[in-house]
């Protein structure tokens, strides 16, 4: 009985006098380009990605993700401001009454419209007098910016009587420092604890009343701690920690993956045990780091304050709450990992036999160890471009004056008088298309990653298939040429199929993500638990999730194997691969599953090691102070983990695809030769025969008296 592929896979008779071409032409036959419309779609998508990214590069400025805007619309810390603000990167609201009024429920002014300037550090009240913070020197104030900084931003003694009277009315150009403040993510957050000495001096000078309500603290805190502000800081952390991402997300996983492949090649018997033990150690280590940064153990918790602060003042933030959640999740993962390790201990010997088959393939097709370096560098270039575009897209927008309707006045040094016309502040205004552009950019990253991984898998599958079906005939050509031949077949015939496969996987994953978000929101709605409509929608979304999961299992890497061997399109290849596996599921299922588990743990070991080293690098002084201070190690660690996993998946794909291709070829080999696989490696036959013998022995013992 022939399998679903008939004689497509296998050795082909050649005309008299002809010899098979070098490097695995034994699996070549009449091929043609497949799924070309999807290759054109992928190319069009890349053009759209470039256009989308160019919009970000044109409109965005990553400084906006970290620093605020002053009342003139300048970005604090920018050298292109008026005046030059390259060293003035801390935003300070100089009028405390405006800050208080913006926190009222019946507020007539919003915090972005309150007057703010950029300073080097947050000012503090005087211990025995009254300090002032004055506006940028211009007009009649003949001071340079450097002199203004040297005077601690105070030129009150140079003011004319009219300017002094205006300042006492909190209209500037100088404003009293009544409340202490701390630098919280480059914005000065007031502490609602007015200095009695400074307040007394202010009242003696005839200054207007200053509100001392707690709102002056909460208003700025809520603005700094808003969801959009936290998201911007998380994205900015990616840009600040780029050396960490290069080392821990690129170079380290490359080194570890190559070491793992070499150890599989020369020390395969001990690798499953080493992988399981190392996985548990790394999970525990990463969990402990989350505990430390969450402040649950140790004395080095995350702080939202930049620089020194009063140790008796405690300021929280969403970043700290997110670390608490991450620590809890890692605890759950740690428990699951430990229980899973116990469950698979008895099956590790089976995985060792399967890995020996892959080690044999790697030993004979030695170019497989080197090949992933090529897609690795392609992905590295793509990710550098993508992350740069991400920073600019998230910061894209226009700095425009707010549309406000308030009555306020402030002294204009250029005009030399109090001006009541320009009270509105500036904000970064985003168009409705920015959100769509960001989602498109994120989807593009996932699709491109899946495409390059699929191409790598297809090349490896074609090389291993050549090894399987040509054993003993062209072994002298196998070590170097099969990979090149497989790569040529991919580039010439199958790029469209890989584009379709990666697109399907990407769409399915995004649909699953959207459905999960819908279910999560439904659980937060009270009536969703009680109403019939809520229950119906929740059940329907859960059913859809089940269908999506089934689709993901069907559209798997086995389709790429059939594409590499037969040149079929993606859909047909997926159907053929599924048929082969289902016909032999009882024979190969357990062997394949245990091998996949060990490989998954290996990939997680590499990615967890990347996360652990990212924690260590981010814990240095460079990223805990000054301009490179990150808001939280959470996002850089997660990005390092994700990049490490992608790199590990790229290199571990050599072993993974070797096992899958050998097993799939074995299935067809057995079906073509009436159950006897003629070309199967002896190690694979021993593994399957031992497994069959153990199952038969258990059945016999179960039927005994």
UniProtKB/TrEMBL annotation:
Keywords: Membrane, Transmembrane, Transmembrane helix. It is found in: Cell membrane; Membrane. It is a multi-pass membrane protein. GO terms for molecular function: transmembrane transporter activity. The keyword Membrane applies. GO terms for cellular component: plasma membrane. InterPro entries: Choline_transptr-like. The chain crosses the membrane at residues 242-267, 273-292, 323-345, 365-386, 451-470, 490-515, 597-618, 630-652. Belongs to the CTL (choline transporter-like) family. Choline transporter. This is Choline transporter-like protein. The lineage of its organism: Eukaryota, Viridiplantae, Streptophyta, Embryophyta, Tracheophyta.
